[in-house]
Amino acid sequence: MDDAAFPLPLDGGCRCGAVRYRITAAPTFVFACHCTDCRQLTASAFSVGMPVPKEGFAVIAGEPRSWTKIADSGLPSHQYWCGACHGWTHTVAEHSPQAVIVRASTLDDHGWVRPVGQIFLRSGYPWARLPLPLNYDTEFEDTVALEAAFAASGVRPVSTS
Ligand SMILES: [Zn+2]
Ligand SMILES: [Zn+2]
C-alpha cells in the first residue's frame, strides 16, 4: 500500500505504558486469528493481528520480553510482551521475518481497526466466527488476497491533520 494514503505514524503500547512502539509504514492488512495460542495469550476468543513492514516498526520505550515457540511452519515465532503488565504487543514469526505482526488492539487509536480475513478457524470457537470474505482453516496460504482486500476496504485511521 502507498504510505502516503495512510495516516502515519501510528503509536501504541502495552496497558501500563512501559512498552511503547511506533509504526512508520502502512500496515499491509488486518486479520483475526482463532488459534489456540492466540486465545490463551489474549484470554479471549481471538487475536487481531496487523502485519507491518519490519523497517516501519520500532519499540520507542521499554524493553519487551519475549516468549518463543515453534510455529506450525516449523520455525520459531517470537511473542513480545511487557514484563510489568504482561500485555502482548507484537509478534515476529521467522517464516515471514519481513513483517512485524502488531497486535492491533494495542494501538492508541484502534477504533478504526477491522479485519478482512480470519485464520485457524478449525481451532476457534464456532460462535466467534466473524462474517468476513476471507476464511482459512489454518494459516493463510499467501497474503495477496488479504492485502488486496485491505487496500480495497478503505479501512484507515481517521487522520487528524
Ligand atoms: Zn506494560
Ligand atoms: Zn494465532
Mind explaining what this structure looks like?
- The protein has two helices and eleven strands, in the order βββαββββββββα.
- It is globular and about 35 Å long.
- The protein has one domain (about 5-150): glutathione-dependent formaldehyde- activating enzyme (gfa), CATH 3.90.1590.10.
- The protein is mainly β and about 160 residues long.
- The structure holds zinc ion (2 copies).
The CATH class name reads Alpha Beta
Number of helices: 2
The mean pLDDT is: 93
Enumerate the distinct ligands. Answer: zinc ion
Residues in helices, as a percent range: 10-25%
CATH topology heading: glutathione-dependent formaldehyde- activating enzyme (gfa)
Largest β-sheet summary: 8 strands, mixed
Q: Which CATH-level-2 architecture?
A: Alpha-Beta Complex
Overall domain count = 1
How far apart the termini lie comes to 20 Å
Describe the strand arrangement of the main beta sheet, using strand numbers. 6-7-8-9-4-3-10-11
| Overall number of strands | 11
Characterize the overall form: globular
Elements, N to C (H/E): EEEHEEEEEEEEH
Supply the CATH superfamily name.
glutathione-dependent formaldehyde- activating enzyme (gfa)
Low-confidence runs of at least 5 consecutive residues: none
Quaternary structure of the protein: single chain
Q: Please state the CA-atom Rg, rounded to the nearest Å.
A: 15 Å
Q: In what range is the share of β-strand residues?
A: 25-35%
